[in-house]
Design goal:
- Helix content is 42%, strand content 15%.
- It is of the alpha/beta class.
- Helix 8 (204-207) links the parallel strand 6 and strand 7 (216-221).
- Helix 2 packs across helix 11 (258-273) and helix 4 (94-105) runs parallel beside helix 5 (120-126).
- Bound molecules: pyridoxal-5'-phosphate (PLP).
Amino acid sequence: MFYTKELQALDKKQLLRVRKIFPSSYLDFASNDYLGLSYNKKQFSKAYKLLRKENLNAPRASVLVNGYSKLHKKLESELSKINNFQSCILVGSGFLANIALFESLVRKNDILFIDEEYHASGILATKLLKNVIIFKHNDYKDLESKIKQSHIQSRILIAIEGIYSMSGDIAKKEFINIAIKYDAILIVDEAHSSGTLGKNLLGYFDYYDIKIRDNFIKLGTLSKAYGSYGAYILSSKHITKYLQTRAKPIIYSTALSSFDTALALVNVKYIQKNKNSLTKKIKTLKKLIVENLKIKLDSQVFSIKFQNQNKMLQKAKSLKKNKILVGAIRKPTVQYPVLRIILSTKHRKKDILNLCDLLKK
Ligand SMILES: Cc1ncc(COP(=O)(O)O)c(C=O)c1O
């Protein structure tokens, strides 16, 4: 049989991954459903109605053939407008969007500087490149010293996340200053910050109140706070033009599913309309955690580090016995095993208190 040895080795290290369906009665602190939209049936009905008005159920082809639809265009316009970017292009997923960006934008003499904790899809994409330098996590001083030490022949690209998916820390503002100082292209993966951060819930640039420039690129996903599936890349018109001509995951992959596009569109509008009440709810949730666990909390994500993987897995198991789901994250995704907890506006006060009590035990 194929891969028996590899499977045995992974099993021995307790690194086998499994797919499981959990009862819906479990309290979910594991998924990326930041605003509880994955359960919102009103939004589902709105999206269904919107799609009923169109002729098509499915995109049928790549956006470069005839898969591009009015709904795709509407969602792209809405996302560019609210984020103040010149242009937007939808991509099948965040994973594909990272591959699209790095593989197409980093040309022969360019150098990509990337945070060591950048998402696995970006790190995988760097394997396609020769000119990549990794800097310490969220350490703009390390980035700048690495830029200074490098022999720059052409463009500099810098890749960070708005909110890091494992630790929940927010990227420092100084990365923007460095991008401006060195005329670098700054790519911000906002998978976890779009819809959760900033006074308009738009993410990193919104949080620091930064005027959008031509050298900024925002990658957002539609699958987390936005309660749908897919991703988008916001940039200058020039960069979008280049991506649609050169980025293989955009050219050679079917356009974003029609229903997901409709659902994302109604959800983007919902978040903008309800941003004040949602922000208030997020604040309340975070306050409860800070008061009860006495920890520093930047975002709706936080991790509890363990030196020992077994202990972390035992803790996750005991939470599961109490019908609470959290992320049990192991190597190689993280350096140390962690329990990752994600707060959602669907959580009630008593859910959070219940979680805190069990975590403290
Ligand atoms: C930071 C980050 N970027 C990209 C992705 C990939 O996005 P998607 O799930 O849409 O492929 C994820 C998803 O987990 C993520 O956390």
